[in-house]
Structures are given as C-alpha cells and as structure tokens.
C-alpha cells in the first residue's frame, strides 16, 4: 500500500554537516549557532531582535510575562492548547473568541465584543500558514491600548499586506518537526522593543543576563548572578545549527508548499462536498497545513479513518477546540458557533515541500471515492 505521511521535514546533507560540525566542536549548549540563527532570523523578518528558545510555547509564555500582562488575553479557541497554557502559566487569563467563517483565524468583530477593563492583550493565532486580519486587529489594539502577541507557530514566512507574520506585535514561531522550518523542537520570539528583548533573554536563562557563551570572554566567566527568577527555556547550539540551514532554505520550501497547495486546489475545486482553503487577497499563504472543510453530510472521523486505512496520513487540526477541554471548560468566552462547526468538519491533508504530484493525486482520488 502507498504510504503518504502528513508531513516530512526537508533535511539533507547541509543540515547533517552543519550539525556534525557543532557536535565535533564540543560546544553543545546555547552558543555561537544560536547567535547566528537569531541574527539571520531578525534580518529575514525585518525586526531588531530574534530570540531562540526550546519551543514556541516558551516564546508565548515569555511574551506574556515579559510584558507584565496579568489580566485578560483574548485569543481563539481554535488553536493548539499551548496558546492558552502559555497565558495561564504566565499568570494571565485566557478569553476565547470565535473565528472567521473562511480563514479560521480569530474574528476581529468577536474580539471587540469581549473587551473589558480587564483586557490587556490580544493573541491572534495565524492558521495553517495564513495571517489573521492584522489590520483590523491592530486598529482594535490601538483603540483600546492593548498589547498584541502573535502566535505565528504555523506561519513562518507568511505575509499580510507585504509584512511578515509575527512582526505586527511580539511574534512567536514554532520550529517543531511539522512546521515550515524545523529544528525538531524549538521556537523563536521577535520584537522591536529593546526592553522586552532584554527581559526575555534574561528570563529564558534562569534570570541570568549573560549566557555561558557570552561569559567566556569575561574575566570571571564563572560568575552567574540572577537578576530575576527565570527558567531554562534555552535552545541548544546543536538544534540552532540545524535552524540556520533551514532558514536559508525557507523561501524555497514555502514556494514548494504553495505549488503543492495549487495542485490540490486544481484537483479538488470541482468537488461540491468539500471546501478548499480560502486565501485573503492581501495574504501570502505558506501552507504549513492544507485543510479542507467537509460537507455536514459526511462523517469527518469516519472520513479521516478511511484515508488513514488507505495509507494517507490525514489528521485534524484542531479538535477538540480549547474551550471544550476539561481544563478550560469554565473559561470566559464569547459565541463559539463557527469554531464548533469548523472543528467538527475540518480535515488536514498531507503537505510538505517535496510531496510528489502523484501522491497528491492519490490523496485526491481517495477523497473523491469517500465523498460520493
């Protein structure tokens, strides 16, 4: 049977050689390659600061904590639970808003309905490689003097009106194995604010302002005094090395994802039982995922199971929605009508930079068979 996984990271001899060189160097902890990755990522995004960490969840956590946010943060429930967890663990309160019918990103109209005197921030989640409506979100944030933290885990390299995802507010990106670029596990935070950057860098390394690598050139390299109670959210030099190569390949990998999505679109657009991804006119979609929405007459779970049984690594993002999880069932929220409808019928299909056209055709043939 043909096997088509949901995602395959694009890794070749360049990553292997770069990582091997770091291992041979003996410097495995946070080091020179972190600095290179951070400098190159900041340049790519057009921001002052990029800071590497062990996960996007850690980035989100410190984006909240470093800004002293302790009140309510409005975000979509249609997201991975890490978005809400970061808010809670940083000492703030999540408030869930509904999503747009077409893009599945947070609905600005629903955000404004939920703003109270306790609201301190908005956390839009860019979905599957496409930005939320950042013009509207920034207008709301400016109107009510709210901070903006972009969960850009799924949108590295995506753009909204020519501006990179994650560069409107504080950006948080995932380097997990399924993302547009990967280090296996990892994350990056971006900001133009020097004070936020300084605090984040300190918090991620036990509250110590200078890293081990930075202290190597100091007279008392062993002197490690903490200025605040921090965490160990550091990314290793080994993984950062892989990230430097992945970043060099990012635009080409995203181009290939877009070409794969175009093939899916052409083959699926005539199927009346599914809805293919909607793309905003002002959006550069990088297809971290390719999702379809099934007609309500089709049992989504049975559909995904049938695809899986035929060797197709289809999945679901996201079910359940966060507000439906036991830990968040009593959380404050607005109407979840669109969220609850979408999470019952959405399906994620295999997509990755080197997916073969023949594999896409096989996926589509099975979709046609199971949607008759």
TrEMBL record:
Record's keyword annotation contains Transmembrane: no
PANTHER family: DTDP-4-AMINO-4,6-DIDEOXYGALACTOSE TRANSAMINASE (PTHR30244:SF34), TRANSAMINASE (PTHR30244)
A GO BP annotation: polysaccharide biosynthetic process
Modified residues (N6-(pyridoxal phosphate)lysine): 179
Signal sequence interval, chain numbering: none
UniProt GO MF annotations: pyridoxal phosphate binding; transaminase activity
Record's protein name: Putative spore coat polysaccharide biosynthesis protein SpsC
Keywords tagged on the record: Pyridoxal phosphate
Active site: 179 (proton acceptor)
Pfam families noted in UniProt: DegT_DnrJ_EryC1
CDD domains: AHBA_syn
Source organism, top-level taxon: Bacteria
Family, per entry: Belongs to the DegT/DnrJ/EryC1 family.
Keyword Isomerase: no
């Amino acid at each position: 049977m043909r096997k088509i996984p949901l995602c395959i990271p694009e890794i070749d001899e360049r990553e292997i050689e770069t990582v091997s060189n770091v291992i041979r160097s003996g410097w495995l902890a946070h080091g020179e390659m972190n600095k290179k990755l951070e400098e190159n990522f900041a340049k790519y995004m057009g921001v002052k600061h990029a800071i590497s960490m062990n996960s996007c969840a850690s980035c989100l956590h410190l984006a909240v904590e470093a800004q002293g946010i302790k009140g309510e943060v409005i975000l979509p429930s249609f997201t991975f639970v890490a978005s809400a967890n970061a808010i809670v663990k940083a000492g703030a309160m999540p408030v869930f808003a509904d999503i747009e019918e077409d893009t599945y990103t947070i609905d600005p109209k629903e955000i404004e309905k939920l703003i109270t005197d306790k609201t301190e921030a908005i956390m839009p989640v860019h979905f599957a490689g496409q930005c939320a409506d950042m013009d509207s979100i920034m207008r709301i944030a400016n109107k009510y003097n709210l901070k903006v933290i972009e969960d850009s885990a799924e949108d590295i390299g995506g753009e909204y009106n020519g501006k990179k995802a994650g560069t409107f507010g504080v950006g948080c990106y995932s380097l997990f194995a399924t993302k547009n670029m990967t280090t296996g596990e990892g994350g990056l935070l971006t900001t133009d604010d020097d004070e936020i950057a300084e605090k984040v860098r300190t918090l991620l390394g036990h509250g110590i302002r200078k890293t081990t690598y930075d202290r190597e050139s100091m007279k008392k390299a062993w002197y490690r005094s903490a200025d605040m109670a921090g965490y160990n959210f550091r990314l290793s030099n080994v993984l950062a090395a892989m990230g430097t190569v992945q970043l060099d390949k990012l635009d080409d990998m995203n181009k290939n994802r877009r070409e794969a999505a175009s093939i899916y679109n052409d083959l699926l657009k005539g199927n009346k039982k599914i809805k293919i991804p909607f793309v905003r006119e002002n959006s550069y979609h990088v297809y971290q995922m390719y999702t379809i929405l099934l007609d309500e007459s089709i049992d989504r779970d049975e559909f995904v199971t049938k695809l899986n049984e035929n060797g197709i690594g289809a999945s679901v993002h996201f079910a359940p929605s966060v507000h439906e999880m036991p830990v968040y069932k009593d959380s404050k929220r607005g109407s979840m009508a669109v969220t609850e409808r979408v999470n019952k019928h959405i399906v994620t299909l295999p997509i990755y930079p080197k997916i073969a056209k023949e594999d896409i055709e096989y996926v589509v043939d099975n979709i046609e068979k199971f949607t008759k």
